[in-house]
Design goal:
The protein is an alpha/beta fold and 304 residues long. The chain has 11 helices and 12 strands.
């Protein structure tokens, strides 16, 4: 009787219920649901992302990646991906630098580190100075932080190797892709991680089907591990650039364990990804990342 009376009184006064103490409403994402209907999509409550792992495909557009990478695209539809995400320019190297430094740093070609001895700040250095861990897992690399092409390893796809002031950290933490399985299984993934396939597995010289098989198998390693299961890991898949026929628009996935599936239509670019990685690290944005559209907000990601 007392409960009923209080309920009636609250209704009469126009009162509204409030979240329980200590709970924060989940953010909303401006997106199109996977049914194709434009709507606001919410993300479920998570403990906050403290780690991000980035995969990079080579030279393929949004449409090509959706059609040619069915396993990876299935992962995208189960989580969230962008339809208006663009690379910065052509060729490859400037885009890798854009992601990791918030700028192409004046580089307009694919030359080796001996031709581009870069000294500027970058996300690898930001992670280290913030007391966080950074790691790059390079497929087919013959030795840590290798500075020249070797077999199917392309140094132009390994941006850490270009920053001369960070060379000591690169030699320690720019490692073979074979280390990923062990780190994922042990819950020892870095706060900032890049997984760089070789030129076969990134679809530069190989097919999108080969890239799909290689990347999807690594995603399976990550999602089986404790970092993903605890909700603290974001998995990103993007491409450095398109094939020069699609306005440089590429498929970009940003997945966390507890997302509601969404298609994000906000215009984004590689500088937005720089900003997201910096948000995960809890550091200030570099260069063009300061003014780029927020990927973190567009995908409704809660960082730790």
């Amino acid at each position: 009787m007392i409960v009923l009376a209080l309920t009636a009184l609250l209704s009469a006064c126009g009162g509204t219920a409030h979240p329980a103490a200590g709970l924060t409403p989940t953010p909303t994402v401006s997106a199109r649901a996977t049914t194709g209907v434009t709507t606001g999509v919410t993300t479920r409550a998570t403990p906050g992302v403290t780690k991000a792992i980035v995969f990079v495909v080579e030279n393929h557009s949004l449409a090509q990646m959706r059609a040619g990478m069915p396993k990876t695209y299935s992962f995208a539809t189960q989580h969230a991906y962008a339809t208006d995400y663009t690379a910065i320019r052509h060729p490859s190297l400037p885009n890798y630098l854009a992601i990791t430094a918030g700028s192409t740093l004046g580089v307009a070609d694919d030359a080796n580190p001996s031709a581009h001895r870069l000294t500027g700040n970058n996300v690898f250095r930001q992670a280290r100075l913030a007391g966080k861990k950074a790691k790059l897992y390079a497929d087919a690399m013959p030795g840590t932080c290798h500075l020249t092409n070797a077999g199917t390893y392309a140094v132009r796809h390994n941006p850490w190797a270009y920053f001369v002031k960070d060379r000591a950290a690169c030699r320690k933490h720019d490692v073979s892709a074979g280390r990923l399985r062990r780190d994922a299984a042990a819950g020892r993934l870095p706060n900032l991680g890049f997984v760089i396939p070789d030129v076969i597995h990134d679809a530069h010289d190989g097919t999108l089907g080969q890239a799909d098989a290689w990347i999807s198998s690594r995603i399976a390693m990550l999602t089986a591990g404790p970092d993903w299961q605890a909700g603290r890991l974001a998995i990103v898949v993007t491409a450095d650039e398109d094939d020069n026929h699609s306005g440089n628009r590429v498929l970009t996935i940003v997945a966390t364990k507890d997302q509601t599936p969404a298609v994000v239509t906000t215009p984004l670019n590689h500088y937005s990804l720089t900003g997201f990685l910096e948000d995960v690290l809890g550091v200030k944005h570099l260069r063009h990342a300061r003014t780029a559209p927020s990927l973190t907000k567009a995908f409704g990601i809660q960082v730790g």
